[in-house]
Design goal:
The protein is built from nine helices and no strands. With 190 residues, the chain is mainly alpha-helical. The chain has two domains: 54 residues, no CATH class; 111 residues, AhpD-like (Up-down Bundle), CATH 1.20.1290.10. Helix 1 runs parallel beside helix 3, helix 4 packs across helix 9 and helix 7 packs across helix 9. It starts with 22 loop residues before the first helix and ends in a 7-residue tail after the last helix.
Length: 190
């Protein structure tokens, strides 16, 4: 799948923050610019600007899962990389790789996660275990995650809260992948 690179290829209008008139859209865009860490509104959110409540709900879920919680944002972005790579989602993969780079993650580590080469990766065993689950869930479906898999995560000293948070991240990134791929959201100029 080729990543779309122009706003013209997007199936929905990319609402510009500078010209948005809806109060919900303007307020949500303001939060995104302040809190996300990119200093701009990414195209995924701009593509939702014509649907204020969907935009607001998507942002609230994204913020709750990615920007808050007990797992570090880097771990959640690595999960996003694993999910987006398994789904061959060009927009989401590019955004996760950019975010990880900004946060100082080595390009070799990012490439290994994107290529699902986790056997010799220099990450904590608990993170590798979460990435394996993320990749499996994206490739084969969430129903393939067994109680034994959950037990294995617990054996890595992950709390149930951390596991639940990781599962929420997997689910969020599945949604983001579907949304951006169906809408043909162009990759941001990051």
């Amino acid at each position: 799948m080729q990543a779309s690179t122009s706003a013209a290829s997007c199936r929905f209008p990319l609402i510009d923050p500078a010209t948005a008139t809806d109060p919900t859209v303007r307020a949500t865009y303001g939060e995104i610019e302040r809190e996300l860490g990119f200093g701009m509104v990414p195209n995924i959110f701009r593509s939702l600007g014509s649907q204020p409540l969907v935009l607001e709900g998507t942002w609230r879920l994204f913020r709750a899962v990615v920007l808050h919680g007990t797992l570090p944002r880097i771990v959640k972005e690595l999960i996003g990389t694993a999910v987006s790579s398994a789904n061959r989602s060009p927009y989401a993969l590019a955004v996760h790789m950019h975010s990880l780079g900004v946060q100082g993650v080595d390009k070799h580590i990012m490439a290994m996660v994107a290529e699902d080469r986790l056997d010799d990766i220099d990450l904590a065993p608990s993170v590798v275990a979460l990435l394996r689950i993320a990749s499996q869930s994206a490739r084969l479906g969430p129903a393939t995650i067994t109680d034994a898999d959950l037990h294995d995560l617990r054996e890595q000293d992950l709390t149930m809260e951390e596991i639940q948070e990781a599962f929420a991240a997997i689910n969020l990134f599945q949604y983001v992948n579907s949304l951006t791929d169906l809408a043909r959201v162009p990759v941001d100029a990051l």
